[in-house]
Design goal:
Blueprint (H helix, E strand, L loop, with lengths): L1 H30 L38 H26 L9 H4 L52 E3 L7 E4 L5 E4 L9 E4 L4 E9 L12 E6 L4 E10 L8 E22 L11 E2 L4 E13 L4 E2 L7 E13 L12 E2 L7 E9 L10 E2 L10 E3 L2 E3 L6 E7 L24
Amino acid sequence: MQRLIAFLVLAFSAHQVLPVQEAGVVAGQEAGVTGSPEGGSSGAGTGVPGSSDTDGPVPPGRPVTAPSTEPEQEQAANEAGARARTDARAQDLAAAGESEDEAPAAATTPDAPAPRPGNSPSATSHRGTATGTAPAPAPAPAAAGGALSWAPPAGWAGYPVTRITATNSVTTVSGKGGDVLVQLPPDRAVAPIIIANCRNAVVMGGRIDVLPTARPDGNDQRAIYVHKCTGTVHIEGVLINGNVSGSQADGIAVNAPDALVQIQNVRMEGLRGTYSVNHADVFQPWGGVREFRIDRLTGSTNYQGIQVRRDLGAIGRGTIRNANVSSSGVTPTDRGGQFIRVECNGYPLALDNVYVAGREGRSFGTSVWPQSDDRSCPAVIQGGVASWPSASNIAGGVRQGSPAAGDFVPAGTVGLGYVSPGYR
């Protein structure tokens, strides 16, 4: 009998404990503690580090956990991280002090398009082949001296003609919303030109000598300035002489967000610029362009080269092939020194057969931009080629030095008496 009583007491005690254990398991599942099927990692649904849910309101039906010091610790960590990012940004801006003023993208590109799908940083090969958004297919590279990649607009030879004659002042050519053929003299150089308010425009051959000043009429000097055109602007076979004492000038500048600009078989010699006065470039679409295409471009400069980062306007896409930029050796110099400046994770850009020969004594890694020491998108130098593997929008890279066969646009092949080699 005593054994029977002991057995009944033991059974009754076990029956009272078991529901408490089961309730503890359920409560743990609802609170999302470690090991629960619903909670995932520690802190699920609470907004503390380790949560597998996104930070936000507690889902309906899930009890709010008791307050702890973890959110306060996270807030302190976040504030410290924000301060670190601010300090790093300030260091980035300070590192850019040798080049043009760098401002946040939101401040300098108000018209920039929304980011394209796939433009977030992704791994690429050191050759720069993109794994995200890549430039649209383009014609295969043309060998230097052969036919060019892109023809002028159909019917260009029948456009209304504007003949340039001025040698000591800038000439503005207004297309008045229509098409225009800009004719430079076949036997002598002229002063810089502005092509404005056109639909399509063509410049075929001729020579431009920049003026011995930095800012004629109070504006930065540009040998050719494309302004507010909306169709195709085709510039071919032009020789630009920038080696003029007292001058500071861009080679070709563009402020035409709706235009397609084609630059082919163009040579620029001895361009001069300074950080303090005129930030002269071989080519810069600073005001925006729908698309730019370059095939066979040679330039020498003592400041900057091909500057194709977005500035005050959006750039849709770009192609640079068979191009070489070198130091003119003209002194003194005032900062500058990056002979190509590209934009990481922006518009699609294809680089093919592009060369940079920097200033004497300056490393290749600091003759391109972003430089090899950039924090967010460094140039990777491998086998004499600079590429930007963290930039999903850039296909190809830039080679160090000059082409083995010489300039893509040799002296004497363009300018006065130019004859086009035709198009593929």
